[in-house]
Amino acid sequence: MLKLYQDIESAISCVKNGYTLMVGGFGLIGAPLTLIDGLTKKDVEGLTVISNNLGEKGKGLGALLSQKKIKKAIGSYFTSNREVGDCYQRGEIELELLPQGTLSESMRAGGAGIGGYYTKTGVGTELAIGKEEREINGTKYIFEPALRANVALIRAWKADTLGNLVYYKTARNFNPLMATAADVVIAEVDEIVEPGELSPEEIVTPHLFVDGVIKAKKILTKEGVIDVE
To answer: Does Transferase count among this protein's keywords (predicted)?
Structure first.
């Protein structure tokens, strides 16, 4: 049964020490800022975070990084937050860099029950070091394992009380993929409506993938991140 959370503490109660989290967002766009803020106040550590990037300095996942709650990050674009490189140089975080398409496909594979796949991307580069290489029809490929997580924290535009999700433009980014590839999925949304108010044609993530929904308390605007009622 879907849980409609009224408070952030309850929504993130599923996150434990040492868990692997998938967290949506491209920069701060499409990131579950309310849920991330809740994690900054939660006594949790040793997290592995699968996300395109680690927010910005002191913002989004960048706030968790500053608190040293992230032990490893798997993603594509860590340079949006200068502190990531500084922490890496000090040996405070482990980084696994994946090309953006590989990151997406690895999550898709995890959601589809596929153990991994072969790709040409990264062949002959440092990203291929330590990975299985195979020649198929005269072309070299490297093996990439699927990605899954204990918990996915995602951001959508609207949800109905069943848990069906609709996204807003590019804020959709990695969120639908993550919703399929985690044991527990918590969605932060702008609006919660009754069943039947969302057109079946606009639903991207069916309710079967979603375990909980909470209304956003923080949103990203042109002026920055602001609190809302």
So the answer is: yes
Q: Give the three-state DSSP class for 175.
A: helix
**Residue 217, both tokens:** 């308390």
23 inside domain: yes
Please give the pLDDT value at position 1.
75
The pairing of beta strand 139-145 with beta strand 116-119: antiparallel
In which domain, by residue range, is 82 found?
3-116+146-227
Domain of residue 207, CATH code: 3.40.1080.10
Are 133 and 142 in contact by the 8 Å Cβ rule? The answer is yes
Q: What is the pLDDT of residues 175-204, one digit of tens each?
A: 999 999 999 999 999 999 999 999 999 999
Q: How far apart are CA 194 and CA 44, in angstroms?
A: 34
- Indicate the average pLDDT of the chain: 95
Quote the tokens at residue 32.
């579950």
Largest separation between any pair of C-alpha atoms in the chain: 59
**The two structure tokens encoding residue 137:** 């029809």
- Counting the structural domains of the chain, the total is 1
Q: pLDDT below 50 — which residues of the chain?
A: none
The residue to which tokens 């405070």 are assigned? 92
The encoded tokens of residue 219 equal 């949103």
- Look at residue 176 and give its three-state secondary structure: helix
